[in-house]
Specification:
This protein has about 200 residues and is of the alpha+beta class. It contains eight helices and five strands; from the N terminus they run H-E-H-E-E-E-E-H-H-H-H-H-H. A five-stranded mixed β-sheet has the order 1-2-3-4-5, sandwiched between helices. Helix 3 crosses helix 7, helix 4 packs antiparallel against helix 5 (about 135-140) and helix 4 (about 115-130) runs parallel beside helix 6 (about 150-170). The radius of gyration is 16 Å and the shape is globular. It starts with 8 loop residues before the first helix and ends with a helix.
């Protein structure tokens, strides 16, 4: 079944390769905004509600891994898509809109790589989404002694999850809706041993 973002895939790839994107890394919020103010903050920063023509904004840059937001989205008047792109020798190796299922599998695979990651990755997600702690603070708190390559993979995962959480708070703004609490619930249930199939019966994503 075609996904909404498939309509933009070719254009997004073209814009990334040509560097036709705005660099928003200097103004990108380091911590998740308060859930009830996310739309306001993102509109002030990137005008996601007011300027709905196609555009791509770089929000996280790790060199060989970048996170972009792309306007427009489809679920609300302020929605956007979150894309990540992996690079090898300066060329795009992969770029996609990560689904919740894919992020859940990434979470599971990371936990297999180290006892430290297995123990503290769920704590990191709670700090990121519930406590609005920055990813840099989280890495310093939980993963300071982790091997650098694995630490970078954790960083990539958390930065991607951060923007998925921002997107959820934009589309389903609290207090009337649950926003990023849906995302947090997914990982809490995974940590408790629920399968993705079971979780879909409990949480809408």
């Amino acid at each position: 079944m075609p996904r909404a973002w498939d309509d933009y895939r070719e254009k997004v790839g073209e814009f990334i390769r040509a560097g036709k994107f705005a660099d928003g890394t200097k103004v990108s919020p380091r911590k998740l905004p308060p859930p009830e103010k996310t739309r306001e903050v993102l509109n002030e920063t990137f005008r996601i509600c007011e300027e709905r023509e196609f555009r791509l904004v770089l929000v996280e840059d790790l060199g060989d891994f970048k996170v972009f937001i792309q306007v427009p989205g489809e679920k609300s008047e302020c929605d956007f898509f979150v894309w990540y792109a992996r690079f090898s020798n300066g060329e795009i190796e992969e770029y996609k809109v990560p689904s919740h299922d894919e992020l859940a599998k990434w979470f599971t695979e990371l936990k297999k790589q180290s006892e430290i990651v297995e123990e503290f990755l769920i704590n990191s997600i709670i700090r990121l989404i519930r406590d609005r702690m920055s990813v840099e603070e989280i890495l310093d708190r939980y993963f300071r002694g982790l091997e650098e390559g694995l630490k970078k993979e954790v960083l990539k995962f958390l930065l991607t999850l951060k923007w998925i959480s921002v997107q959820e708070d934009t589309n389903y703004p609290p207090p009337k809706k649950m926003g990023s609490k849906y995302t947090l619930a997914l990982y809490a249930l995974l940590e408790a041993g629920f399968s993705l199939r079971d979780i879909r019966r409990i949480v809408r994503f």
